[in-house]
Fold this protein.
Amino acid sequence: MPSYQAPVRDMRFVINELLELSSHADLPGFESVSPDLVDTLVEEAGKFTSEVLAPLNATGDREGCTRHADGSVTTPAGFKEAYARFREAGWGSISMPAEYGGQGLPHPFAFVVEEFVDSANIGFGLFPFLAVGAVAAIYAAGTEEQKQTYLPRMISGEWLGTMNLTEPHCGTDLGLIRTKAEPLDDGSYAISGTKIFISSGEHDLTENIIHLVLAKTPGAPEGTKGISLFLVPKVLVNADGSLGERNAVSCGSLEEKMGLHGSATCVMNYDGAKGWMVGEENKGLAAMFVMMNAARLGVGIQGLGLAEVAYQNAVAYARERRQGRALTGPAEPDEKADPIIVHPDVRRMLMDAKALTEGLRALALWSGLLVELSHKAKTEEERRAADDLVGLLTPVVKGYTTERAFEITVNMQQVFGGHGYIREWGMEQFVRDARIPMIYEGTNGVQAMDLCGRKLPKHGGRAVQAFFKLVDGEVAAAMDDPQLGDLAARLGKAVGEQKAATMWFLQNAMTNPNNLGAGAFHYMNIMGIVAVGLMWLRMARIAAAKLAEGADDKAFYEAKLTTARYFAERMMPDAGALRRKIEGGAEAMMALPPELFERS
Amino acid sequence: MPSYQAPVRDMRFVINELLELSSHADLPGFESVSPDLVDTLVEEAGKFTSEVLAPLNATGDREGCTRHADGSVTTPAGFKEAYARFREAGWGSISMPAEYGGQGLPHPFAFVVEEFVDSANIGFGLFPFLAVGAVAAIYAAGTEEQKQTYLPRMISGEWLGTMNLTEPHCGTDLGLIRTKAEPLDDGSYAISGTKIFISSGEHDLTENIIHLVLAKTPGAPEGTKGISLFLVPKVLVNADGSLGERNAVSCGSLEEKMGLHGSATCVMNYDGAKGWMVGEENKGLAAMFVMMNAARLGVGIQGLGLAEVAYQNAVAYARERRQGRALTGPAEPDEKADPIIVHPDVRRMLMDAKALTEGLRALALWSGLLVELSHKAKTEEERRAADDLVGLLTPVVKGYTTERAFEITVNMQQVFGGHGYIREWGMEQFVRDARIPMIYEGTNGVQAMDLCGRKLPKHGGRAVQAFFKLVDGEVAAAMDDPQLGDLAARLGKAVGEQKAATMWFLQNAMTNPNNLGAGAFHYMNIMGIVAVGLMWLRMARIAAAKLAEGADDKAFYEAKLTTARYFAERMMPDAGALRRKIEGGAEAMMALPPELFERS
């Protein structure tokens, strides 16, 4: 059975040394952030997730959730107790607004907990983390009464929440939704329709579940301009706050999935359920996007968490399993064979995973810091710059991370050879679980179009130009450094590929927008390489400085330098190939009439 | 539920137009090969697999195989009847030796059937196809008595066969095996030990199962030089050919796997089972390699088959499912949304799959022809050239095909969005099933080392030099053709990357063999790109000629030209990035001491 140990040292490195969170102590919410707080939180979260949640991961996958004849759903054995402990420890409310009972800590802290939970037990994690988006939407768009009624109990974890977007005939294209909201005399609405793929739609962890539901009011405009957002509690809340009648919403069935069996993915039936509009009529999609953006970063972190736990188990196996001999001669001549970590191809997979998990972790947490700065930085200019950057990075953190994370879980399974395919080793569960983050909260193709079709051209390319300036500046500053120069030069080359691809879009997408669509996915991956490359340049700079000043933990910093070099030499070359693919354009891609794809 | 239609037209194109099998009619076994025979065989195999086997694929996955208390194993509902029909139609004996009752047709025909079966139901396919390797080994190394006793009934499908290599502590490194073979007075051996991951080790499809088992005789040399091969029937065969006593071999348990549930993957216990040596003592590994080489091409075809069926279902879904609008304006303005095949990113995934499945099919069948020519070509020189080439291509067909095939199944699942993750759509089964071909019959890392460590340097690089000469010649011949020139130029560039990588190995692997190991996997993929590129150049040449001569089926040939262009523009650029990764060398990859991979 797989094991999990939270990467506490690396997390401390990212928060204290790379992001230097405590240096922002003059911003709201950062006041109490000290390296000591970081250490405590990271240690405790690591302990909780590895001791309480990880042991329920394989069993949760095996058992799954169960729907009963009355529509109720029970979670796998142990989840309920684990959730009670999770709630009690406050792990779900780290970055939630203090005014409604949250801890109000900066987002990177919530991301730490999310990564650890997703590594330990992603099926469990979906129950509390879906509520994060629901809270964000109510907080951003709800009335004061809605906030008072729902937020304190959602933030305390007494109640959980869901997002209801998808219907059987529409997911990406929400303009097609059919769920109806009929206004009632009391100002509420009667919601009717079927929603599918609803994570945590029904379960036994909390007494109440607060559903946020997209629906159309009578006579609403066609398409996405006619969608409103509604709050639909599973159990109605009386004026005194006590629980009242059961609402007309129920779980019609559980989806049978490839993985993520610990999570209850529900078909939800709304049969005239009582709901209240959140935000303005026909502006539901905008309110929902508040949830989506937060959720998208979170989905990137899900991928990261699964890659990390898969990596750890592959390392353990590669150090233990003996097969064959090192190409350079026996590494352990007294044994009948060497541990497989001596084989370069095993190393390749482990180093790819190490370089990416550490780089993607830095990127995700930096994005979390940018979310904070976009709201809280001192000047309007700084806030705008952070907002631009996080807008650009969000589809990359979601799309690039989950693509690479899935590959990592597959490679880590490969390290196990045939044993990787056998359930009891647990590696195949990581692969099955890591498949879904590429799909939900907007498929990675949708992320790529968000990046290239919306974020790139926005404000005349302001965000991406700022990103280029940032990278160029750090490259230039490191270019003459003997330890960083090569890495900087390679990053300069990679960002050059991204600039060339951007220019190519500029020159070719106006005449034919398919040229943009045909290259968007590859562009997202180039930008992922550049963004992670930037993280590695920063991490290498810190490591070199620490080594120069004679820091303890020399081996840790030396490993950072080696891993940075590996990323530059072994992973950055893809940027050039991706640019050339983009320059292939849409012509051959779009030329065939659909019927010629059919076999005969 | 997924459907499957055999790609009959494309298969006829490959056999009749690309390989021109009937042009070899002067070689043994090719006498009866005519375009008519090809059409009939392809049509009938297509019909059988889509009508009889495909409907049992999802149910076979759900139900799996069952082991009973007495050690017997039953296959999923319908498999037994389907096998009877499979056997009756002779689908298992296409290319088996005519002297023992096989049909003696050239290997490409067997590959056609294998691809179709693997598309329709790979779990079923493993039962008959494992026997192919066992037959090959007995045919190559067995005594005349062994051949007479076992081959006719294995070839007729009355009995099936297995390969027993892996043990709990060793797979790749067979030198470590512990299974013992004690000589008995009658010339037979008592075999004792445990083998794992044995496909079709026990089942209810046939009365007898012929196990080929690697074991060590007393006092045998250490390592791979002390391994012998034994034939161990499940039921002993009396002198008159009737079945006698049950042998002391049994299935201890079935492995629970990520996929391939229709196949019985057994732990086999040998408790002094009676066996007979096949071939010479301590030369078992060589005899086993006869099986392995055939099996490796077959595993490549498994990947191809799964990619093909996943592709077909994604095409159907992409033409049916409506979401959003074409970037160039509504394609079907009367509908509320366009079919998703209008979206470039969906096209990208479909075109990748189309270009690869068609290219990999050509490559696999060409390799099958080379297997024939290596035995049957008229001159020693031709036979040697074919043998060199197929030796070089075998790890590429196994490794590159299964890598790309898995990616294709993942992308085809992605086309379905969230529905791809749901079991009832069947796409996730293709992904789970396509994962194992990357692992078994030698992991793809082992294939890469076979290619770079053994096949490249053999005879002073004779094979790869011949391959370069072949590609260069076809590139040069097409360079000035207005329709083929760009494709040829791009293939020339890709083979240039392979040459540069080969040269880099030559210059850097002697001083440090890890430089070879660190680049081997990427080299395998470069060679895959070049080999498939060569197939596309040939296919494009034929298509252009057919169009020029005004052939019917114009659309088919035009699609070939477009797809060739797509492969060149969109997939070949990876060769350059892979070469640069190889040139990164082993230093950063091998630098970290193993303990620094651990998290703390």
